[in-house]
Target: Xylan alpha-1,2-glucuronidase
Amino acid sequence: MKPLSLKALSALFISLAINSLVSAEDGYRLWLRYESIQKQEILDSYLSNIGTVDIAQKDLNPTLRVAADELQKGLSGLLGSGERSNKSRLLIGTASQNPKIAKILEKQNTNFDQKDEYLVFADSKSKQTTIVITGSSDQAVLYGVFAFLRHLQTHQPIEGLSLRSAPRVENRILNHWDNLTRTIERSMSGASLWNWFDLPYYIEPYYIDYARACASVGINGTVLTNVNANSTVLHPQFIEKVAALADTFRPYGIRVYLTARFSAPIELGGLDSADPLDPVVIKWWNDKVAEIYEYVPDFGGFLVKANSEGQPGPQKYGRDHADGANMLADALAPHGGIVMWRAFVYDFEIKEDRHKQAYTEFTNLDGRFRENAIVQTKNGAIDFMPREPYHPLFGATPETTQALELQITQEYLGGDVHLAYLAPMWREVLNADTFAQGKGSTVAKVIDGSVFSHKNTTFAGVSNAGNERNWTGHPIAASNWYAFGRLAWDHTLSSEQIADEWIRMTFNNQSEVVDTIANIMLASHQTVVDYSMPLGLHHIMAEGHHYGPGPWFDQGRPDWTSVYYHRADEAGIGFDRTESGTNALGQYFPERVAKWSDPEQIDERYLLWFHHVSWDFEMDSGETLWNELCLTYQRGVNDVAKWIQEWDGLSGKIDAQRHARVAAMLIRQHADAIFWKDACLSYFQTFSKRPYPKSITPPENDLEHYKNFKLYHVPGHPAEQW
Amino acid sequence: MKPLSLKALSALFISLAINSLVSAEDGYRLWLRYESIQKQEILDSYLSNIGTVDIAQKDLNPTLRVAADELQKGLSGLLGSGERSNKSRLLIGTASQNPKIAKILEKQNTNFDQKDEYLVFADSKSKQTTIVITGSSDQAVLYGVFAFLRHLQTHQPIEGLSLRSAPRVENRILNHWDNLTRTIERSMSGASLWNWFDLPYYIEPYYIDYARACASVGINGTVLTNVNANSTVLHPQFIEKVAALADTFRPYGIRVYLTARFSAPIELGGLDSADPLDPVVIKWWNDKVAEIYEYVPDFGGFLVKANSEGQPGPQKYGRDHADGANMLADALAPHGGIVMWRAFVYDFEIKEDRHKQAYTEFTNLDGRFRENAIVQTKNGAIDFMPREPYHPLFGATPETTQALELQITQEYLGGDVHLAYLAPMWREVLNADTFAQGKGSTVAKVIDGSVFSHKNTTFAGVSNAGNERNWTGHPIAASNWYAFGRLAWDHTLSSEQIADEWIRMTFNNQSEVVDTIANIMLASHQTVVDYSMPLGLHHIMAEGHHYGPGPWFDQGRPDWTSVYYHRADEAGIGFDRTESGTNALGQYFPERVAKWSDPEQIDERYLLWFHHVSWDFEMDSGETLWNELCLTYQRGVNDVAKWIQEWDGLSGKIDAQRHARVAAMLIRQHADAIFWKDACLSYFQTFSKRPYPKSITPPENDLEHYKNFKLYHVPGHPAEQW
Model:
């Protein structure tokens, strides 16, 4: 019984072949490969239009230095050894730093009024092109360089070059759920990037490449530690290490933040209490924050998870979230820092639908938070499910800024194994109309401050990067790091455009390659939903490790079971969150409630999120709910099978190494999709007691097989001990 | 207070400069870089002597295929695009597979009588050179290819080329203390290499490079899991993954082994007992082993740590180590596997010097073990201290094969931070005369089977490789992986020769580079001993994490304290292991006892290991012991300072990236050496009450400072939880 031998042997020879290749496309360079342009006419055009880089030496600070360095790196890679025009020129810098640029901008009457606004344009006059990369700040110039290089990497023409953009959101921050032990919670990308033990003595070269990748998509902040926090990071031994990272990232415009464990005054300070109103505690935090700013003068601030899933918090002392947040905010304010206080709180002791608790808690506190204390809210009210309707909190706190927290790491979408491009998922949230101030009050507009004139606007993304050579495990998963940055910068960008950019930069510009990969990517989120938690189903994953199905799970704390969420019974399935149920729906604005109250009217993608409906409920397609459920699961499985074929067709058109890895993962994803389908349908059938539609492949095994299946050592699961 | 800013900023710009470099010398390619030869006369000679590779296509199995592939890789790298002679030819293969080779060997009357014996020679006739790479097996041919490429990498001449070698020891095995959670015990090299979750679907290309590195130094086995074992690896879900790794390594001649948790029948099998004499338990293991062999037909066997430091074992059932080992050996014997049963057992309940316990236990069992059950013994009787006298067990079990277990990972020698080349340490053990069968019964000869005609001779090395890009953290630490393999193959090789080979292959052949690095490397082990545990001191490191000093530690179980080992008091210091003390010395053979009984006669490097001597004891140098101790610590510190200067001088002569990393680590090593000196001397002075010699730099701080210092999150420490 050695079914693997042949498979492994072919994998081996593929690997051998890969190893023989001279060029290493191992994913390390992400979307910043700068491979020499092969298309002759494009290369020729670039060579004649892109001349010598002219960077004034006056006031060349670290940011302008890295900007020049990146430009040099990009151009020498893309243009290779081709001869560049000696008539054309490329000016880079700010007006205040480069007089030639000042002159050009003055003539154009161009003024900048937004932070980090870049401007890149080309001016052609009789075979001499002047390209200018400038902006409202040195940081903007760096962003302009990346925008220009993106333009070239995606083979856009110099003629008519005009890129002007400023970020719509102020803080565009990665959240690394990294532990000081170098394990990463809920990640499958190897060890934490932060080689703490060798800091501050040794700066890994890849810290620089991390900073470049972030800066290239406008990410300007990074929280280095897990929200399930460890107070040791606030010890000087670690602040010193944090400072070394901060110094490394600073030229790239990236500020560092830390998670603050609320009980640090006790654990680290030896105090008896962590009461946010206790003067001794307040002083401790003030002193601690001041200490941090001595090491890191532009420290961003704290991210806090408190009174949630066992994390310590102000409630132990009879205080509320605003009390806790404000104490930290007051400590940070004199230094220009912010506190991001997570709204992800729920407690089964509170006898209310989990879905409702954060809204109840934080709307009650609206108006209580300091200006530099913002509330960080997940995109939906449960927990990063493959699909969630937008969080009812968005738009419901007129006086409190909320950060949008997205999860880049695929905790619930197949880890580093399943291909899933998440921009469409995030676009769905951003496009959603909260109706907070009438029609058009989209989540995007709430978050970017337009609806309520909020300050400290913030996008946060739980990072999927680790010390794996290709950073993200699955090669396609890097697209989500890219997409997060692009959307945080400009939430109006389409999923299609972002995918198109990323594919061209990461692979190549061949239309067959771009189209094939884009089609798979753009379909992938829905496909993952289809084979795992379709039609509004949610939280039916396996207990603990979250990888794979567990809709039968019913042990322990109810709001950590699966049955609590799908509520399948003989009558039907789904969670009644309308007036006849928990009325979590009622927390949304009236226009939204009106749209979703009726199971016949609601967008079917959210049906079972808000309604308990009969197995015979007629869907838009005319099928019964039960049939639709089965057909949807099957469609998800079939989609992955199609991708395997389509991906196969790319063999030889992209590099063998990354092709092989995705191919191997697709086989696993297909097997996992079948497992999801079979496990869930055999389980739900015990309630529906209806036959499977003829067109689906019935489960291969009986329900007990799926219930008994145990998956060992899923990476990133917090219970993973030594 | 930002003392780091300047340091970090310069580190940053160094990193930036590194990033700008086209060629990546990040250490990934280890000693198999195959960089094109720059020295023209050598290149010319090679080009005229190395012709077309002639490999007969008949019977080209995977091993010959990888041999040919490696040869191709090596030659195209080393010889570049230079034109190779079309008159010369290079034949590769075995006699049975390549008739041309058969003919040549027959003419020479060359026969092979040893396993894996390779033969590489050149035969020049009128400007036409025939080079032959052959051997007693396909595996030998692969080893011959690596030997040939080593020859070229170290710029040796083709004229007179004659390399013939067979391994002196049968099993040359790495032990990876890797957990299934991908953490590695006692390692600082990132995450475990084994990406379990993506196995068996995905074979990481670096698995191949791992196999190449191992095969290049003749390593032919690898234990994939931690000796603090996890029975889950024996579950089919994991055996399937193990099989994929085995399939990947097989062509390189590397067999896989696993650690077997003795209680697996209970944890995995649901049995009530793990009694090795219980028929139900015996059957469970027999079935389990048979199952493993269905997946991995050449599975090597088990490595077991039992009844040691909390690991389960046969003693729970009133059985002994031989009972336990034999049960597993009987299960493995029909399939050709072995069990390696670790002698690292000690118990404070047993009121005997820890040093004596393994000897007592295992000499009592001599003769009881099956032929395929061998005892695996650390080089010394305590636990991989920077210096230990050889284990008294060596030579004391005439009827039982012992494996020599060395530690490549620097658990007690500074982790991935301190530069320490360990071949001299290992040579010291190998050269040591046990006197088991009179003079000349060296440890090497005991281990290689010469003294007692033992079978299944084995070298085991606790691996220092992890998923860090350069595998071993500190660039120089890779030399120990290399040295382990070279010594396991041929324990007569000198530390100097091994270092010379490694430096030339890893860096370059410039004599200034080779000499400088070799001098540092060859001195390094003694230097680490000098600044941490000199003159026979041992086990005085910090509690728990083992990084840094803790000679004052006296809490909890005595044989886990420091005071138990140094026994400093007002009279003197050292552990009396002679007749007047615990008489651990008495366990050695009489000739050894005679040499070491007298503190005046004993090799001073072991003085305090066996003797408690007065602070005024006169050393060979004429100094008192106290003074010698101080001067030795200071010498260690001074040596590291010298290396910093010497290493600086290599700037520009080797690649910037690796130069920078070693430079940064040397600064840390120097600071750590000072800390060791200051902590230990200020502590020991409380006993000696004597002044420091004038020529040393006294401790910068008082003893309390060192006692209070706490190092957080040392990687690899088993208590490191989430």
Remarks:
- Chain A touches chain B through 81 residues (CB under 8 Å).
- Chain A has three domains: 38-165, 171-492, 529-575+612-708.
